[in-house]
Design a protein that fits this description.
Distance between the termini: 46 Å
Number of strands: 11
Structural class: alpha/beta
Shape: globular
Oligomer: single chain
Strand content: 15-25%
Number of helices: 16
């Protein structure tokens, strides 16, 4: 059962043990990823010496790193010291979250030096604000897009099964990255079409997943800047984890542009994690700290989204709250 930080401080030794464990676990995951120690593992047993030779890492070092993962049930090592991948190995190898975790950790360490400078910790660490850095580094941008796709996949049951989107003809996914949200939505609404709108370079990364899904004829890719304008003509506008990236003033600019593009009978769906009204353990608080380090944004309570939407010409229509995941806030223009 998950313990809060406060609860761990109540138990003698719990907090130091947790700090040590989480630090070591992250270090090992990061190291084996960077050295490619798991890259070639499969169901065929491989000697540790062979794995070490491929990486250039000393055999004893590799044995100790992989020994930790074997003890944690991530892979298997037999009595002869041969290593075999398992389904858990593949699950860890497949996720891109470890790279994001490393960047978050490095950004957090830069935060004390960024305080009072007018720069985010991300800019202090990487030299550019986060979205400029992504544009300048296509590989990191692709990783970030995959993380967004993973996030959508992990929260699909909350977004699509708990919340019933009303019928629509054309959905405009504003800041839709590689299109995972829009493609899933169109799968559930086969008569509808979609516009995937994001920065030109980002939209370019969506060509392959849209084509692979067989939706090239139903999805129009449009490059642009949502601080300048968004495509008109949609009767459903989507904002998934966009507003939390930006300050209140920047959010009002985005919402104003969406409001200007909307006609009668249109709807806006804001998909975000909601901070609870009271202070209690909740994953949105952790994400709020990440936003503090990475961007000018923040996580918000429903009451804060309501006030922001009303200030930009919207009325809150209905909300599907998910206490531990993605909530869907639908608003209509007034």
């Amino acid at each position: 059962m998950h313990k809060s930080l406060g609860e761990m401080l109540d138990g003698p030794g719990d907090f130091p043990a947790w700090i040590q464990y989480i630090t070591v676990a992250f270090t090992v995951i990061y190291t084996v990823d960077r050295l490619g120690l798991l890259a070639d593992l499969d169901s065929r047993p491989r000697p540790i010496a062979e794995i070490a030779a491929r990486s250039g890492c000393p055999v004893d070092d590799v044995a100790r790193l992989l020994g930790f993962l074997a003890a944690e049930g991530v892979l298997a090592i037999d009595e002869h010291g041969n290593v075999t991948a398992t389904a858990r190995t593949e699950a860890m190898r497949a996720t891109v979250q470890q790279q994001l975790g490393r960047m978050t950790l490095e950004t957090g360490f830069a935060y004390p030096d960024a305080v009072g400078t007018g720069r985010t910790a991300y800019e202090a660490r990487y030299g550019l604000p986060v979205f400029e850095h992504l544009r300048a580094n296509p590989e990191i941008a692709r990783m970030f897009g995959r993380v967004m796709s993973e996030t959508t996949a992990m929260n699909e049951w909350q977004i699509f099964e708990q919340h019933a989107f009303r019928p629509f003809t054309l959905a405009v996914d504003v800041g839709g990255s590689q299109g995972s949200l829009l493609l899933r939505l169109l799968e559930m609404h086969p008569a509808a079409r979609g516009v995937l709108f994001d920065l030109p370079d980002t939209v370019g990364l969506a060509e392959r997943p849209v084509a692979t899904a067989g939706y090239a004829g139903r999805v129009e890719l449009v490059g642009g800047d949502f601080f300048a304008a968004v495509p008109s003509g949609g009767d459903l506008y989507l904002l998934k984890q966009i507003l939390h990236d930006w300050s209140d003033a920047e959010c009002r600019g985005i919402l104003a542009n969406i409001r200007a593009a909307m006609g009668e009978g249109t709807r806006l769906a804001v998909i975000e994690r909601l901070l609870p009204e009271e202070y209690r353990p909740h994953n949105a608080y952790a994400l709020d700290v990440i936003m503090l380090m990475w961007t000018t944004g923040r996580e918000r309570r429903l009451s804060e989204y309501r006030a922001m939407l009303e200030a930009c010409g919207f009325a809150l229509d209905r909300v599907t709250e998910n206490p531990d995941g993605m909530s869907v806030i639908e608003a209509v223009p007034v």
